[in-house]
Amino acid sequence: MRARIQHILVVSTGVIWICTLLIQCAWFKGEALDPGIIKPHPIGGYEALGKRIYYPRAAREIGVEGQVTVKAFVSKDGRVTDSRISRKLNPELDRIALNAVQRTLFEPALKNGMPVDIWISIPIVFALQDWHPKSSPFTKFELTVRPDPSYQTFAVEMQGQLSADLEWPLHFEFLLPLNADNVWVQTGLKNKPATRIVWDESGEWLVFDVNESMVALGFNYRSLAGQTAHKFRYKFILNHPLPDWQLAVVYGNQQVHFTQDPNQVFEQADGSLRLEYNLESLEAYEPRYLELELIE
Length: 296
Hints:
Largest sheet: 8 strands, mixed
Number of domains: 2
Mean pLDDT: 84
Strand order of the largest sheet: 13-12-16-10-9-18-21-20
Shape: elongated
CATH architecture of the largest domain: Sandwich
CATH superfamily of the largest domain: tricorn interacting facor f3 domain
Distance between the termini: 19 Å
Structural class: mainly beta
Low-confidence stretches: 1-31
Helix content: under 10%
Number of strands: 22
CATH topology of the largest domain: Immunoglobulin-like
């Protein structure tokens, strides 16, 4: 397990950005269009697009700020089918802005009342002065991995307890590994197959809304051809911050090895072992790399 390195943020905010719409240091404004065209708007408003923008630690720590402009082709069915960066700032911030636009669904542009395809420009500003950390909606979060005896498949499940004072519904975006299948989300007392998937350059995102204080989701992770055999390697990304959380591995008589020793080990009533790792809090969209391997 890679240990996370803590830094002290020391930056200068010599430039002040005046934002038309401020959501995590990002503002958006469409370019001028033909007056006969009603321009497209993100479903849920620009606030919904703004929530997909985040300001990573690495960029903040070195004081990167400024504007990224994304040109997006919004089809008549409201999907972004092509996009590019027309004004660059920083490779990581460029990627964040581009991916956020790619994952956004739009109310399409209208001309004479009919949907039309159109290119638009969306400026996105990252400003250190205006950044502030978001609080986590979770009071508890746990990710559990259950490898099968062959270590070719890993059942992955996530469970979280949400705060009681949230506004519902709560929107979730969760990056799936490309080798995931049988994806499900728990709604009420039943697990249902997940059907809403969106793509960006990072991969496949599971998107859903929650109206209850408990959330659960899961998938099967299958080893990819060409990878080192019997390894679980996973890049965990969620659109909400997490408090200190827990990774658990539950298995039978296999021997397992992590890149760091577990914090706790328990033998369960059925004879299986449960290894627990206490992980530190994460910011929204901040990646955490998890790795599990079999001792041959």
